[in-house]
Amino acid sequence: MVWGCITHRGRGPLVFIEEGIKINQSNYVEMLQEHLIPWAKKVFGWDDGTEEYEVEWVYQQDSAPSHKAKETQRWLRENVPDFITVLDWPPYSPDLNPLDYSILGYIKSIACTKPHESVKSLKKAIRKAWDEMPDEIVKRVMDSWLAASKRVSMQKEDILNKFLLLSCFY
């Protein structure tokens, strides 16, 4: 298993999860603390005096059990400027996760052009594809994600407005 993140500012760290490790809320939070936070402080700027990021950012993740666990949600509230909560993120929505619908396909197309004889060889090819992925691809995917997220948000707002309108009649 592998974890990575992307923003308009480029790609973040790529973390390989050891074979046989089942991701739970504790080791997921540990991985975020060890890899996401140092990277985010560097990319978005960190002011030691105010203990705040210089540039606001929002963390988005899917609805995997370790992501929506109470410990994870608490940690995110305490450690990132903002994040999309479990309640605000539609379940089973890989079409809204840029890593799922685009980046992983790109990585596979580069790293898996031929069969690998070992896990080590596969990891090396994945890391090389990730590291050499053009910034323009990441930016284009993030633009697409932002547009899709806005459409979902507008649809959600329309549904909520219709519900509120309907509830006024009862």
From TrEMBL:
Species assigned in the record: Acrobeloides nanus
GO MF entry, a single one: nucleic acid binding
Origin: domain of life: Eukaryota
Protein name: Tc1-like transposase DDE domain-containing protein
Pfam (any one): DDE_3
Domain Tc1-like transposase DDE, chain residue ranges per copy: 19-122
